[in-house]
Specification:
The protein has 626 residues and is of the alpha+beta class. Helix content is 39%, strand content 14%. The protein is built from 24 helices and 17 strands. The longest helix has 25 residues. The relative contact order is 0.13.
Length: 626
């Protein structure tokens, strides 16, 4: 077994965030000594077999497991319900970093997997994207981390202005723009790949994962999903004495609650404002007589942007949903006060349980008559135009061409339009307050990737399904970082890799049927959730009047516009942004646009508060304005 010892570097680099979990992985070379010197002295250190530092950071005891067999080191950081003996057995079979494929494909949970084999290292996150890996050159060697801002501190990196411009896109930045980090010189490793680092410090990204072929019917697929979901929920219930989960108006949250309650541990169900009066929620709650209920009253709900003027934790990405940050933190603090340290969320269920309508583009090639029947159903329900339906069969652009086409229309304005699956995804636009410089920056990014970009899958529906999972995982990752500051860990069982794989293995036209919402999950939880609850569609939460924003909050928003960091970077027009904040948008897309922009604005300000780099300097030299 390798000896471990403390590192006493200089203090030129502060911790990423007080109390936050993080880690860096260093190569097994003397050249990494200088890189290691920038790591806080309070960090935990684990060595390569050579005695050089390998894995350094801060993590909780319950989120870390290490196996050491000969010259092999295998570490799991995150949630993985396996014991030390089982992990050691896996480690004993590893002769090369490529052998870790079998481990990564078998272990349940949501975690980072890190290996050191004869001086070579391998670092990877989760397939879903919930656990991410980043890398950068630090003093000439490749260093990996689970947070981009940690590497930014080690390298002195600044914010990449063009990538920040892409974060203003509505409803979302497309693949691969949203995969990029916001730091110049810091790179992300996709969830389907791992970072391999040699004993000289050279790194390369290797793809190891492919989605399963969708060959299963609904019933066999439901059996596989039930096993995977039980493992995901029970594994957390086994290690946590007090869990909490949401009880809302959908079968996803009900399934999580019943699976967690079946373990026999203390369970607290969180009922959001409005759901407490829902007959469907009350029906589901009757089958959970021994759980503790924690209800949020309507008068406890904060208005949108209630704390936008208050500095928050500066993560490595802007927070999605900044308008609801006050409510998220208030709920997290309430759960912590109730003794709940882990909260099971149903996030990701919509994305993994059924495809978006883009699967019709694939179905049109293999089963055209079924595709036509399904398209008619969608057209009636969602008011698709005949032209849009026809494009399901006629629009056959490759992904790069579609990106370029969308780039030409960046400033065409926000319009809901219809949602028919044309092209490779939803059209993306810049908001009205974005500048021409912002549009040019995004178009340059698109031009840089369009020639060589490959979609996540050969077919449009498959690409859309994988990208939807990755997007919700990224949002959930930001939310997890936020609630962690309140002392609560948030888990998303539907985004565990084995659960994602179980869902993707089902034929899209069987798990996605008009009029049969969440058919795969309904079949999977038969016998777990009472039939009365399964048969009765649980209605959405009853409408709760959104608290009106007081004049003080409007003043806070206008103050952000007056001294906008985004405006100083030349990405938004502060006058147009001020007008939008003054009237507060009414359409959903405009609200999303404002949320995206203010999330980026708050993030830039929080970076300055964290003393990382001043906002005025947070622009790479190649893009500096006169």
């Amino acid at each position: 077994m390798c000896a471990t010892r403390d590192v006493r570097p200089d203090r030129r680099l502060p911790a990423a965030q007080p109390g936050a979990a993080w880690f860096v992985v260093l190569p097994d070379t003397e050249r990494a000594t200088a890189a290691a010197a920038g790591i806080p002295p309070s960090a935990t250190r684990i060595d390569h077999c050579s005695g050089r530092p390998w894995l350094v950071g801060r993590w909780s005891d319950g989120e870390f497991l290490l196996a050491e067999v000969g010259t092999t080191r295998l570490a799991v950081v995150g949630h993985c319900p396996v014991g030390a003996a089982a992990l050691a057995q896996w480690a004993s079979r590893i002769r090369d970093v490529a052998d870790v494929d079998a481990v990564a494909a078998s272990l349940p949970g949501s975690f980072h997997l890190i290996a050191s084999v004869d001086g070579r290292s391998r670092v990877q996150g989760s397939v879903s994207g919930l656990r991410r890996v980043f890398h950068a050159l630090v003093d000439g060697v490749t260093v990996a981390a689970d947070r981009g801002d940690v590497l930014a501190r080690m390298t002195g990196a600044v914010v990449a202005r063009s990538r920040l411009a892409a974060r203003l896109l509505v409803p979302n930045a497309p693949y691969p723009l949203a995969d990029d980090t916001l730091w110049q010189g810091v790179f992300a490793v996709a969830g389907d790949s791992y970072l391999s680092v040699s004993d000289t410090g050279a790194g390369r990204v290797v793809r190891w994962w492919e989605p399963p072929e969708p060959n299963l019917g609904l019933k066999p697929g439901a059996s596989a999903l039930r096993l995977a979901l039980e493992t995901a929920v029970w594994g957390r219930a086994y290690t946590e004495p007090a869990l909490s989960c949401d009880l809302a108006g959908g079968i996803e949250s009900v399934a999580i609650c019943y699976l967690a309650a079946g373990n026999g541990r203390q369970l607290t169900v969180l009922i959001a404002a409005g759901d407490g009066r829902s007959p469907g929620v009350e029906l589901a709650a009757r089958g959970l007589p021994h759980v503790r209920r924690l209800a949020v009253s309507p008068w406890e709900v904060w208005p949108p942007y209630a704390d936008v003027a208050v500095p928050g934790p500066a993560g490595d990405e802007p927070l999605t949903g900044i308008e609801n940050r006050a409510n998220v933190l208030a709920t997290a603090h309430r759960l912590a006060a109730a003794g709940c340290r882990v909260h099971l969320a149903d996030s990701g269920a919509s994305e993994v349980l059924q495809d978006g309508s883009a699967y019709l583009c694939d179905l049109a090639l293999t089963r055209p008559f079924l595709a036509l029947s399904r398209a008619r159903g969608y057209r009636e329900a969602q008011r698709w135009s005949r032209r849009s339906v026809a494009q399901i069969w006629t629009d056959r652009r490759d992904y790069g061409s579609w990106l370029v086409g969308m780039g030409r229309a960046l400033t065409a304005g926000l319009s809901a339009g219809d949602t028919a699956p044309t092209g490779w995804g939803s059209p993306f636009r810049l908001p009205a307050w974005a500048t021409a410089d912002a549009a040019d920056a995004v178009r340059e990014l698109i031009a840089d990737v369009a020639a060589d970009v490959r979609p996540l899958a050969r077919t449009r529906g498959r690409h859309d399904a994988l990208w939807a999972v990755r997007q919700v995982a990224y949002r959930m990752r930001g939310l997890a970082g936020l609630v962690a500051s309140a002392g609560v860990a948030i888990a998303a069982p539907f985004l565990d890799d084995r659960v994602v794989e179980a869902c993707l293995a089902v034929r899209p036209h069987e798990r996605t049927r008009p009029g049969r919402d969440r058919a795969l999950l309904v079949e999977a939880v038969r016998g777990v959730v009472p039939q009365a609850t399964v048969r009765r569609p649980l209605e959405p939460a009853l409408a709760v009047p959104e608290p009106a924003a007081p004049d003080r909050l409007r003043a806070d928003l206008l103050a952000l516009c007056e001294d906008s960091a985004l405006a100083r970077l030349g990405l938004v027009d502060s006058g147009r942004l001020r007008s939008a904040c003054d009237r507060m948008p009414e359409s959903d897309l405009e609200r999303v646009a404002l949320s995206r922009t203010l999330g980026c604005e708050r993030w830039l300000r929080d970076l300055a508060e964290a003393d990382l780099d001043s906002v005025a300097d947070a622009i790479e030299p190649s893009e500096a304005k006169e």
